[in-house]
Amino acid sequence: MTQVFDLKGVYTPTNSWKFELEENITIGSGNSSDDLTTQSYNTQSSSVGTGVSSFNVPDDSYTRYRTMVKADWQPAARLKVGFTVTDDLLQAKGKKTEHGTEYANTIDFTDKRLTARLTTRYTTSTLSSGSLSGFGSNGHISYSPDRSLDNSVSYSYGNINDRDGSKYSSFTLRQSTNYFLYTDYGISRRILELNQGVEYEGQSYSTGLRRTTKSLIGGFRYYPISRLFLAGRAKYSLLTYEPETNATQSIYNATIGINFNLIQATLDYSLGRQNGNGNRLERRFEANLKKVF
CB of 247 within 8 A of CB of 241? Predict the structure, then answer.
């Protein structure tokens, strides 16, 4: 049998400040089937305040306390800052107490042409199998001065110190620019898209292994008529596997598609080639049909 108690309080002293408190108590007895691992320990993909622990499901009676304290501050109309502390405690019969804490901060800025978001978090957990900690940060900026141009830059960084003493870190940086061309006669419609992108991904391990991927991306989409489009995309990547070997990778895509109100269809062709670290050549045809009822 499992009993769950929830408590939530909200306090807004001023227009610019808001405080929230959430308390969750779970009491289980016997061989519980509850899944306490719905939130995996991942400092990059987990959202702020969703959970920080990798608790195992107890086989006997247990009590779990989860507390979240959140403060939102809006110093300006377009700027919002958030602070969150999440504490997770698990006490199970005949086992060591397990405890995890996450400290998180978010900064959001929204304007007519510019949007930006920065998320930073630090997590620490003490489990029966050992202690681990992690730091993660994500950021995204997009700028669109008008309907014909869109630019964005995003990054993510994560660092994990695992229970066995090993360390892992990753870093990703992406930049993209999209240009849109519209007709200047009759009913305005989009006739051409041009896409450009740069990507960098890197992972490093305490064992000395290091992997990096550097990519250049280009593409287009052309609408000869409103219901028909032709598209192409090319991606060239340089892959580095230290201290082993290097490789280059090229991927080309071509697509033709139609788009009506109740039916959409596309025909795709892809060609991929990798030189180094095991040469590979792949080709693929794919047809898709979607009917809306």
Answer: yes
Rounded to whole angstroms, the Cα distance separating 253 from 272 reads 9
Task: Find tokens 């898209």 and name the residue.
Answer: 193
The pLDDT, as a whole number, for residue 243 is 65
Distance separating the N- and C-terminal Cα atoms of the chain: 44
Residue 124: per-residue pLDDT: 92
Provide the CATH number for the domain around residue 219: 2.40.170.20
Task: State how far the Cα of 254 lies from the Cα of 220, in Å rounded to an integer.
Answer: 10
Q: Are 82 and 75 in contact (CB under 8 A)?
A: no
The residue type found at 30 is G
Residue 13 included in any domain: no
* Beta-ladder partners of 115: 110, 142
| Best CA proximity match to 157, nearest among 170, 175, 142 | 170
Nearest to 124 by CA among 104, 95, 107: 104
Q: What phi, psi does 282 have (nearest 5°)?
A: -130, 140
Total number of domains in the chain: 1
CA distance 213 to 10: 45
Q: Is 122 helix (H, G, I), strand (E, B) or coil?
A: strand
pLDDT computed for residue 215 by the predictor: 97
Which residue has 């598209």 as its token pair?
231
Residue 65 lies in a domain: no
pLDDT along the chain (293 residues), means of 10: 89 95 86 40 33 58 91 94 94 85 96 95 87 94 94 96 88 97 84 96 89 95 93 94 82 94 92 86 93 82
Domain carrying residue 197:
76-291
| Cβ atoms within 10 Å, residue 90 | 23
